Request: fold
Amino acid sequence: MTRKPLNSLPGFNFWIKSRWPQLIIRAVLLGGFIIAILAGFLGTPVGNRNISIVAVWIAWWAALILVAVPIFGRGWCAICPIPMPGEWLQNKAVLGPSVNRNSSKVSRRFPKRIRNIWLQNAAFSLLAVFSVVILTRPIVTAWVLLALILVAIGVSLFYERRVFCRYLCPVGGFIGIYSQQAPLELRVADPSICATHKEKSCYRGNEEGYGCPWDVYPGSLTANTNCGLCMECLRTCEYDNILINLRSSGDKLPAVRGGSLDSSYKAFIMLGSAIVYSAVMLGPWSGLKDAAYQIGSLTWWGYAVGLLVVIWAALPGLFYLVTRAAHKLSPSFHNPRQIFNTHASVLVPLSLTAWIAFSLSFVFANGSYLVPVLSDPFGWGWNLFGTSNAIWTPYLSQYVPVLQTIVLTGGLFWAARKSQQIAEARNAPRQSWPIIIFCTFITVSLLWLFVG
Reply:
């Protein structure tokens, strides 16, 4: 894997280490976040005329899935405004560490038994159950956004560092698994320097910056999953030993030792959610869409239970049967559970491309709603920029099926190659065959939903 450090670019270190660019971007986004909440509560209930729906679930989601996650990985986490108020209260500072920085810090650790992503998995599943309503009703979106920021504040006042981002945020959970494949990474230049440095200021902090808010020691960082690219370690490292690299491909997926079960389930939750959303929003079953909208009804309960069964039981269960078949084809000292956890990482590129294809289906169709909403964000009849009467016009609709086919096919080949690499590293090449068949079945099903 080839790497190119970006730190050597003129002015790069200055702009990355300076707090002002990051603060300004996050403050602007926090302002937009507040506007979206206010619009949800006070604006029109018509979703495509309210900026809370259009800005969050069309503009932001498109930018996140189509650009930020595939290219920058955790880049969104570096500028996310949700933890800002909680961090200000936790640190008793807005810009940099205070003089008495140790006395101002909350020192309570998050309970060790739940330092994993099971809570994130549960949070995303809960949002998934109500997703159709969240995506279309401004007031529901406002409540969700407000709940996220209030939980982030509450957790920051009770526990040290960014516990909300690391263990609770439903968005951060799926960004984490997809960041494994992003070409941008943060790593140390020379691990031997870290080994001999006793102060470990990149983790503990100093007068130049805070200790790693994500509770990660950069000296042992080998994956993107838990690094939020907050850049604090670049500010605190006395040896300029932290690099931001461009790499030729994603992190090497676990080859011999199986991954954790919580991470495996995150892959199933993301892939299963993409399949269910595609069926609801794009499939020929109008009754399924009606059931997703009618919260509290008997049909909605059926939909909710069905969704949870798909992502928590049916899809993992089917994949487990596939991994048992893989084990029988090529027995090794690895048991089916190890094969299950390791090969579940193959679903990361498959589910990412599924989400990209799903996003393409509505971004190009609904992107033009942003033009009138910018002039009339609350739907109150304003015309701030003279565009409130712009007519909805779908963009490039004739090319969307072609793009979706390319994306999904690329995801299948990507997943197949990863499966082969894992199997070859185990000296059990035939183990990849059932996995590839499974990925092919999922891809063909999605192509049928998207392209017909």
